[in-house]
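ok so dumb question maybe but i'm new to this and my supervisor (M.) told me to 'just get the structure for Immunoglobulin V-set domain-containing protein' and walked off. so i did the thing. is this what she meant?? sequence i used:
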Amino acid sequence: MWCISLQFTLSSLSLVYLCCVIGAAEIIQVFGYEGKEAKVSCSYDEGYESYEKYLCRNDCGSDDILITTTEARKNRYSISDDKHKWVFTATISNLNQNDAGKYWCGVTRSGKDYYPAEVELKVEKGVEKISILKENKYKTKVISSQGQGTQGTNKIST
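this is what came out, is it supposed to look like this??
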């Protein structure tokens, strides 16, 4: 994160303070499907257990903070903090293509906030599928696929 403070002295004194997040300790890749949820797990250093944690977008200004650990649930976002494992997890539900992009895991502290991770969320169209491949005693492979509200089985003889 970088910050710049500018001071102008014309007819009156004004102060401009600008901050921008530019880097984090690690980059986390998260994939999700439209209509489903994505979980973002962020590790933080020991000693930050009692600090507020949050998930944000863009430059992480006050309008960019999506959810904090003091809120627990807000709109499509929820968050929890496992203080024994030093990991907080933010969940984004009902994903859509607008959710794709860059996020930041943040820890509120006096002065400059701590950003342990940058998150890149990719949201894919289509149906999440789980495929299971088994061989039975007849050497027939059974492929089972489950998706959003559908379930099917295909048999392939070898």
